[in-house]
Amino acid sequence: MTQHSIDRPAATRSFTARDLASIATFAALIAALGLPGALQIGASGIPITFQTLGVMLAGAILGARNGFFAVLLLEVLVAAGLPLLSGGRGGIAVFVTPGAGYLVGWLLGVLVIGWFTARLLPRYRVLPALGATALGGIVAIYLIGVPWFALSTGTPLWVALTGAFVFLPGDILKVVITVLVAKQVHRAWPGLITPRGKSARTEPISA
Amino acid sequence: MIGFYHPGHSLLHRAPALLKLGLLSLLIAVTVALQEPWQLGVVLAVAVLLAASARLPFRALWRQVSPVLWVLAIAVPIQLLFADWVMAVMMGGRLLIAVLLAALFTLTTTVGAVLDACEQLLRPLRRWVDTDRIGLLLALTIRSIPVIAAIVGEVMEARKARGTQGSVMSLAVPVIVRSLQSAEALGDALIARGFDD
């Protein structure tokens, strides 16, 4: 065993047992949030669910790296043939449908949210956090999802964008929930994400 | 955890997952390159023949293919509005074929076989990626899903008992905190088994 751990690759050695445990747990959480069943709005085939809430929470609570791998892990299991997306969807077919861009968008979204959250901590003021979470949880996801849908179906970009706006109210609600939850969780459980940025270094932590 | 796999002994069932994955990518690339509707018709016929040879139940196939039909029901009329019928047929045909072929792959390949194929694909990257840890991570996630689902269920019941059903916060905060506690226990268990050594 010790022989094995010496020549373990450097890149994955930087993942501690706690990292792996939280990545696996959040991947499972995103899957569990899809279980009650999708609430289908409109007929564009992209159901609105609490799973995007799980994606936003992964970024806001685990940070960019671990949050990213939690989402990636869930998507690998989906592609492998497990029905873990809302409404019991799954299989590699999900990744060739016009909605697949949103799944790729999740990966960018979680990175954006995690990057900004690390810079907003330890204070995590609500207004900047709302902006950062909306940037990752809405703008980044739509940025990939909408053009992908347009390209895949051959519809004009504005038609795809109009269709996407159906999900906007739900997504705004999820952004607000994510920030309020993350605020409470970071206060109750400091140290989940290592704060980066100016304020973290100069200001003494006052709590 | 039961996936979409449907047991069988056909050629498709017995073919190696990596080969099927390669053929799937190749066929999808071919459909993108094709320009004539009749050529797509040939590929579609091949896909349907493959499905018939694998003796897959119609319902299992339908479950995989039907979501894209909803998209097509919207997108095809839009195409007819902005472009001509050839474009509409090509777009619809490509999507239908891609989803049908992908469904054939998923229905004839076990989750374990797909994950093994992924591990084989990652093997050249061994210097940077520890495939053993990825395998452990996949297993931990599959094991965590029922645990987290039980947490969500318990919190929903507790919420009902306290009469705070309307509030999403009273669901989300306890679910996250208890999930983090569960992750911590899992991390401790891994450390206790010498994982970080």
UniProtKB/TrEMBL annotation, chain A:
<feature type="transmembrane region" description="Helical">
    <location>
        <begin position="92"/>
        <end position="117"/>
    </location>
</feature>
<feature type="transmembrane region" description="Helical">
    <location>
        <begin position="45"/>
        <end position="62"/>
    </location>
</feature>
<comment type="similarity">
    <text>Belongs to the BioY family.</text>
</comment>
<feature type="transmembrane region" description="Helical">
    <location>
        <begin position="69"/>
        <end position="86"/>
    </location>
</feature>
<keyword id="KW-0812">Transmembrane</keyword>
<feature type="transmembrane region" description="Helical">
    <location>
        <begin position="129"/>
        <end position="151"/>
    </location>
</feature>
<feature type="transmembrane region" description="Helical">
    <location>
        <begin position="157"/>
        <end position="182"/>
    </location>
</feature>
<dbReference type="InterPro" id="IPR003784">
    <property type="entry name" value="BioY"/>
</dbReference>
<keyword id="KW-0472">Membrane</keyword>
<dbReference type="Pfam" id="PF02632">
    <property type="entry name" value="BioY"/>
</dbReference>
<keyword id="KW-0813">Transport</keyword>
<keyword id="KW-1133">Transmembrane helix</keyword>
<feature type="transmembrane region" description="Helical">
    <location>
        <begin position="20"/>
        <end position="39"/>
    </location>
</feature>
<keyword id="KW-1003">Cell membrane</keyword>
<protein>
    <recommendedName>
        <fullName>Biotin transporter</fullName>
    </recommendedName>
</protein>
TrEMBL record, chain B:
<keyword id="KW-1133">Transmembrane helix</keyword>
<feature type="transmembrane region" description="Helical">
    <location>
        <begin position="41"/>
        <end position="62"/>
    </location>
</feature>
<dbReference type="InterPro" id="IPR051611">
    <property type="entry name" value="ECF_transporter_component"/>
</dbReference>
<dbReference type="Pfam" id="PF02361">
    <property type="entry name" value="CbiQ"/>
</dbReference>
<keyword id="KW-0812">Transmembrane</keyword>
<keyword id="KW-0472">Membrane</keyword>
<keyword id="KW-1003">Cell membrane</keyword>
<protein>
    <recommendedName>
        <fullName>Cobalt ABC transporter</fullName>
    </recommendedName>
</protein>
<feature type="transmembrane region" description="Helical">
    <location>
        <begin position="134"/>
        <end position="152"/>
    </location>
</feature>
<feature type="transmembrane region" description="Helical">
    <location>
        <begin position="95"/>
        <end position="114"/>
    </location>
</feature>
<feature type="transmembrane region" description="Helical">
    <location>
        <begin position="17"/>
        <end position="34"/>
    </location>
</feature>
<dbReference type="InterPro" id="IPR003339">
    <property type="entry name" value="ABC/ECF_trnsptr_transmembrane"/>
</dbReference>
<feature type="transmembrane region" description="Helical">
    <location>
        <begin position="68"/>
        <end position="88"/>
    </location>
</feature>
